[in-house]
Amino acid sequence: MDINHQKSTASFPPTFTEAKNRRQKVRSAGMNPDYWYAVEYDRAIKPGQVVEVKFWKTSIALYRGLDGKLRALENRCAHRQIKLSLGQVDGCNLLCAYHGWQYNGEGKLVDIPHDLFDNRMPSCKVGTYPVKVRYDLIWIFPGEPSLAEQRQIPDIPELEGKDRWACIPIDFTWKAHHSMIIDNVSDFTHAYLHRKYRPFIDAKLTKSEMIGDRVFVSYDSQVGTGRISGLFVDRQRVDTNSMELCYEYPYQWSNTDEKIKHWCLILPIDERTTRAFFLFYFDALKIPFTPMRIPQWLMTIVLKIANPLLIKPLLSQDGIAVEAEQEGYDTHFDAPIVELNPAVHLFQQLTIFKWEEHLSNKQSRLSNYHH
Predict the structure, then answer these.
(1) Which H helix or E strand runs over 321?
(2) What are the pLDDT digits (tens) for 77-117?
(3) Domains of the chain, start order
(4) pTM for the structure as a whole
């Protein structure tokens, strides 16, 4: 394989329609909006508070009324297009910061506090987005609203009910395309990056297949071999010699012997910015140097300590890597493709397929609208 390469004379990477190969396509693809996306922590928005969240360059005003209910509106005032997230909450409505135009939770203009100059109250409405709360996260459906009930937020039974496992979500916002993060979290050939923490070593790919909108991957690997983290792994009760992973579009999860699990929930903000929420949860950690299991009631405290000391530093290494990869791609986007892991090929194929599916559906809806 000839990997010689000279920098292209083009200044910017190609768009999706300009892309000449799979890598250029996947690095310019958006994510299909017809899914539920985690956008913020439920605790982060108090009654009477409004924030801006973004899904693939689309700005959304997310606010909680004084009744405690969350609402999400297209982030613009119909008057002068000012972001509504710059305004304030009044009861269950949202007021524009510029002229005080007031919108209800259905996006309808309901009040103008200034003189109408002998005009009728204009009939104005901005778009709205379905909102739900699950697993202590706020989820928004940014796509076709009529599809919101057909699509489901991922079911994670271990995180619900009275016997739910402890879980404290953590998140990162990285300056990298979402496909780079998907490649990273399911590609175990980068163990060298984590040689200090050793979350996995000696990985051998044993399965890689796409079934519908999922890519299933299996590795034989020694899991949880870190100098400190390894002390908590209960190898008497857990088989840590293999791991199952899945890119369950648009989410990613892993499973080690039904005892150590995680989900990665991607929020694509734009072509070079992605927020990722990580949910790690464990059934069988042990008290170091003893055979005793850590009870679930104590696991929350353990995770509060482990997240900043072990998990965040580990994942920060991934952040450094994907941001460096983004910088490298922006410079060498026309370099030859040299990818050895067949699983990565499948991740990228699925991302491209789902974006093409969205573009096709969008075009069909536009055609039906004009007819």
Answers:
(1) helix 312-331
(2) 999 999 999 999 999 999 999 999 999 999 999 999 999 99
(3) 37-147 (2.102.10.10), 157-352 (3.90.380.10)
(4) 0.93
